[in-house]
Design goal:
Blueprint: E1 4-11, H1 16-27, E2 32-38, E3 43-48, H2 55-64, E4 68-72, H3 85-110, H4 115-136, H5 138-148, H6 157-176, H7 183-207, H8 210-217, E5 221-225, E6 231-235, E7 244-247, E8 256-259, E9 263-267, H9 269-272, E10 278-281, E11 285-286, E12 291-294, E13 297-303, H10 309-318, H11 326-356, H12 361-374, H13 378-397, E14 400-402, H14 405-413, E15 416-419, H15 421-425, E16 431-432, H16 437-447, H17 453-459, E17 471-473, E18 477-479, E19 485-487, H18 489-492, E20 502-506, E21 512-518, H19 525-534, E22 539-542, H20 547-556, E23 561-563, H21 568-580, E24 585-588, H22 595-600, E25 603-607, H23 612-617, E26 620-622, H24 629-663, H25 669-687
Parallel strand pairs: 15-22, 15-24, 22-23, 24-25, 25-26
Antiparallel strand pairs: 1-3, 1-4, 2-3, 5-6, 5-7, 7-13, 8-11, 8-13, 9-10, 9-12, 14-26, 16-21, 17-18, 18-19, 19-20, 20-21
Amino acid sequence: MTQASLTFALDGVNCAGCIAKIERHLGAQRGVVLARGNATVKRIRLVWDPALQTADTLIDQIRAIGYDALPFQIGDTTPVEPSLLPHLGLASFAMMNIMAISFAVWAGDATDMGAGSMQFLHWVSAALATPVVFYSGAVFYAPSLRALRHGSMTMDTPISIAIAITYLASLFETLRGTEHVYFDAVTTLVFFLLIGRVIERALKRRSGDAAENLRNLMQIDARREGADGRIETIAAADLLPGDIVIVGTGERVPADGVLLSDHAQVDESVITGETLPREVTRSQAIVAGAIVHTGPARLQVTHVGADAQIGKISQMITDVVANKSATQQRADQFARGYIPLVLGGGAAGFALWYLLFGASFADALMIAVAVLVVTCPCAAGLATPAVSARAVDMLMRAGIVVKSSDALERLSDAKSVVADKTGTLSEPFPVLQAPDAAVRHAAARLAAGSAHPLAKMLCDGLEVTPLPDLREVPGQGIEAPDGARLGSAQFVGGTETAEFPTLWYRTATGQIHGFRFRETARAGLSDMLRALDALGMPLTLLSGDTQSSVAGFANRNAIPAHHGGAAPNDKLSFLTKAVEADKKPLMLGDGINDAPALKAAYVSISFAGATEVAQVAADVVLVKPDLTLVPRAIQVARAARDLIGQNLTFSAVYNIVTVPLALAGYLSPLIAAILMSSSSIVVLANGLRLRRPE
């Protein structure tokens, strides 16, 4: 089935409950394969059957339940949320004045204030409270009313009901001329709820949006060189592959490209996390987002926008929301079923005190309001995404791209590591071991006529021309007219060796020399092994190379567990059995032959420079081939898991403690508002304790 996919920017979304409602509604529509949203950045990723739905019909479905949406493309920015400060300022002004009036009423009640004076002050309080309810309070109940028109509720619904009940009851009591009004309570309630919402937004922004940060980097201009040599300034998004651009010193590269200048020095830390500049020479690639240290640099554009590496990484991060972790799914289910319980709890609290315990209408009403306010499930809804967003952002800054929240959770639970050898734990190409310079030069005259990879490595760095009239023997080697030969041991007459790849050379006089190519471990392998050992994660080397070659590499690098001669099916079988045995293996690989194993593993990691098949199969992609990033990713994932556990535990304890207190009448609406706002703030602040891996 052909599928279409698109990310939509949402309007009217305030919390995880809003996202869950949109997901449920869209998920029930014919042809919708996937609907996963993110309340932090207010976006949703949709995958659908284009024969049954279009982007417009899906937008109509979102609007049908009280929200709005627009297609979101790479290069767009998240709309700025309207400031809550005017709402907060009005609530603060009214609250302080009403509290002063209430104090005068309380004091007057004790000193026989006249009924007319008291009634006048009540009406003044009503006049001050009304704009707070209808303007400041709209932050909470406007989205709730929009949802109710479509037969659903949000996490703001209980709060909206509490504000409305308190305000209407106060008006009713004022009209009756009684002494009990609650305008101070309603304005104080709105004030503290807004304080919580303002702080919550600030903490969400600090949690970070790595994808948004990357997209913002590309909102720049580019200087394009025309065919006539003239330079024009255009938006980076308007560049096309093949264009020539000029990037000056200190400027950001607007698109992926290859260097046409002789030399440049670039800072690619935004992509790789590497703080040291990289030396680039003619024809080498430079990624979009890099900063040129020594310019100007002249580049030919190869990839632009979403096709550039920075665009692909940005999309990977955006797609994290397309696969929620099991913990987040449980939290969403909890929040979804919790709102009816909140409303029922408020009604039960009122009935319990007013009908059974004989409390006054005013006291029973305040207990019901306190229950409605204190039991808002925002903390539970924020417990997981608050930490996940922070973790994804931090890992991206370190050069680690996590492709789903579920992958982050599985990464934290991994118990063992299985790694490929060539191109993963070792450098992709072996290194020639200390040859005799004169013999090498003579052999290179034959090697220059061959396309064999080892022959090319033998010539690397030498300026040689091939001997004339060379004869190549397929699968064996190459021979010169004078009888000199270069190739396999059998062809040349050398001694076969299994541990190291060897290219044999026989001179015209019959002298035999072996050019040994030794695999070198990637930088950071020993550090990675020590870190994995500290994490209690044993590593197994699993390679398709010969057993002797694998054993030699393993022994040189102190890897006790190793298996050679593993075909792709063998690797797949090994990983499948490890998963079935609950070893929760993390697979680390880079080649096409590793793709089945990467998919079968409990969680998998590959490199940005690996084959595209391996990158697609992997759950985590390392932007640079730094093996120390593997344990660092695990450390951050485990720290995030611990913080999520703390948040969920706190949310559960909060509700277990506060709901009975509210039902027992020990919490006023004011205290309930402070506690509810504080619970969300605590959860978000706890997520900020996550630190970048060092």
